[in-house]
Each structure stands twice: as C-alpha cells, then as structure tokens.
From TrEMBL:
This is Ribonuclease PH. Phosphate binds at R86, G124, T125, R126. Coiled coil: none annotated. PROSITE patterns: RIBONUCLEASE_PH. It comes from Acetobacterium paludosum.
Amino acid sequence: MRIDGRKKNELRPMAVTRNYIKHAQGSVLIEVGDTKVICTAMIEEKVPPFLKGHKQGWVTAEYEMLPGSTNTRKSRDRNRGKIDGRTMEIQRLIGRSLRSVIDLSKLGERTLWIDCDVIQADGGTRTAAITGSFVALHDALSNMVNKGMVKEMPITNFVAATSVGIHQGEPLVDLCYEEDSNAEVDMNMVMTEKGEIIEIQGTGEERPFSKQELEKMLALGEESIKKIIDFQKETLLG
Ligand code: UDP
C-alpha cells in the first residue's frame, strides 16, 4: 500500500475541466490528485523567424509554477531575471511532445502558444501539463476547423504522459510529491496512443537502476498512459 492508499499501478484520480478560461481558444484545468495545472492554447497569426515562408505553423509551450503552488514559496522566474533550468527543460519537453502529434503543414503560418501554469504542485506537474495541454490544443484546433481557419484537424495522434519510479524497491506509477521526493528512481514518460515513445526522462537519483527495473517501469508507464489516453478521449469525444 502506498502513502495515499493506492496500488502500485494505480493512477491518482484525474479530472479535466474544459473551457476553463474565457479568452483562450482552448483551455483546461487538469487535476491529477492534488496537482493542478491550467493549460491554455492561444493562436498567434505569425510564426517564429526561422519558419517564415516555410508554409507551416508552429506549436510552442511555456510553463511556470505560481509562487503559492508549492509548500515553500517559489519566486516567479521573471523576478529572478531569468528562467531557471528546470522550467526551461519542462517547457521545451511540453512543446516537443505536442509537436510530435501535430502536422504543422496543416496549421498555416501561425503559432499555437501553449501556456501551462501550475496552481498547485504535488508531483508530476510536467506530465499533467502534457496530458492537459493536449486536450486544450485539441479544443483550440477544433475551434479553428469550425471557423474554417484550417481545413482539417492537424492532429495525427493522441499524446499523454505520466511519471513512474522506484520507491522502497517497488516500481510505482504517478508519484505524488512525498513519493517523488523519496524515490530512488524517477522517470517521466511521454507516449502516443499507438504506444510509441516520444520521450523518456529517467534518473537514478539515489542509486543506479537496472535494465530489468527499466523494463518494469516502461510496462507500468505504457499501461497507465493507455488509461490516460482513454480518459482524454472520453473527455474530448464524450
Ligand atoms: N517542487 C517544488 N518546488 C520546485 C520544484 C518542484 O515544490 O521548485 C515539487 C512539486 O511538488 C513538484 C515535485 O517537486 O511536482 C517534483 O518536481 P519535479 O522537478 O520532479 O517535476 P514534476 O514531477 O512536477 O514534473
């Protein structure tokens, strides 16, 4: 039994509230246990300079934790005058994950900005941000299709993410903060509906881990991401 009574392969309760923010073309509040992230998708009618004239669009992401989202106040990045390394790594991961399931040539010369704001952190904020922002992006793109801005849905696949890890020798999925901060091994997995891997970030924080342990974590992550994608589908398609 885990700290919060879950089984090893049990995800935390997940909830996604769509159309959470009025002005964004797509927006959700995603709750994964006590982790809460607002994800918005907004259109900008231009592409970054390196894509000008390439007849394609772009999808990019920003991520931030609100000062009150953690147990000790987290100063805003802008107040420290630079984006910290963790924030940069996470926002680039979110952007890469979403771009991997979008046909950018169908977007037109525009950028979809994904903004992920963590309002409460309890482990797994980056994976919640990826799962939630896919839904926000899907909604924004559906709106664009309905308005005739794009001819067809540029989405090629579903994508979702979760964390896996080893805690007291046991492989676990979807670690809460208490588990995460005591885990021997910590890994984030991003996968598509087809079970293809987009990205894996695995770290032996307390000790090295074996290939056998890696296999166990991969299996646990794959089975769990399938459940999360089923949940995204129910949320989006009813
Ligand atoms: N965390 C925190 N302050 C920070 C960074 C992280 O309190 O500056 C907590 C937060 O609960 C977060 C957890 O530590 O969810 C794990 O952080 P990690 O960097 O592994 O990213 P995450 O699991 O949120 O993607």
